[in-house]
Write a structure and sequence with these properties.
single chain, alpha/beta, Rossmann fold, 3-stranded parallel sheet, 13 helices, globular, ATP binding, ATP hydrolysis activity, cell division, P-loop_NTPase, ATPase_AFG1-like
Length: 346
Amino acid sequence: MPDRLADRRPDVPADRLVTDMVPPPRFRHVGFDGYRADPAVPSQAEAVAAARAFAAALGDGGRRRGWFRRAAAPEGGGLYLDGGFGVGKTHLLASLWHAAPVPPERKLFCTFVELTNLAGALGFAATVEALSAHRLVCVDEFELDDPGDTVLVSTLLGRLSERGVRVAATSNTLPGQLGEGRFAAADFLREIQALAARFAVVRVDGDDYRHRGLPSAPEPVPDDLVAASATGEGVTLDDFDALAGHLATVHPSRYGPLLDGVRRVHLRGVRTVDDQSAALRLVVLADRLYDRDLPVVAGGVPLDRLFTPELLAGGYRKKYFRAVSRLTVLGRDGAATLTSHRPPWR
């Protein structure tokens, strides 16, 4: 009987929350030389140069106060890589982490949700102390989904800056527009503007590299084949609705540990989701699946129809499009594993 993700309830000790803050498996060995900048998109090469310069500046031996300065060079402030999904921002951020001439124990790599969860688990003061022991903090998928996060992160980054910690981040949204379309951002304009002032913004343009010249999404796999092919160690089999319901009982910061030991995920009965809370949880799961490079064998609706048109047009649309892009890649990988399971007439 295959393992079910819906049966897992990962217990993550508080000390692991920090020690796990390293680039995920997909980006464990990446570097700037492996980033394939599109010659037709100059901003990509410019982003590589900016990220290289930011990493190199960390080796100057001095703890520069004032990464709030509005200097032209990214090394004069925090670095913020802004661009659409699929342009390689996470690759660049992980490359920066690897290239920074800082001992591994003094640099962190985390997602935004992991950062806010750390503050919730340890408390604000303890989080400041834990992060202040590092020279570099890299924050992937920087987003402000609610006013509480806005105030928390603005205050946290201010405290870290005072202690000389350098921050690099990626997002699909310019820092001055964080929270736009999600809550009454105007009521928190001061905090949002303070966040924007902490970063030198480097734009990364281009098309989604994951799908250049490729079809959009693989055809769904018949549910009986999804189940029949769910064999072997580290393979899970879940009914989509049961897994979606289970995700509501697990904090999103634990979706990574939920996948510990998994090498392939099988889902029966995938359907289009119209509930925003459920959809946002699936976005986080998609990100963690992608981080771990886990093939997904899926039946039901095609993965590019996972979210309703209304959700794709709303304030979180960039998150949903990123999730679809990543799941499509993993779905292709999953479909490629099925050759040995298909009957000869298929």
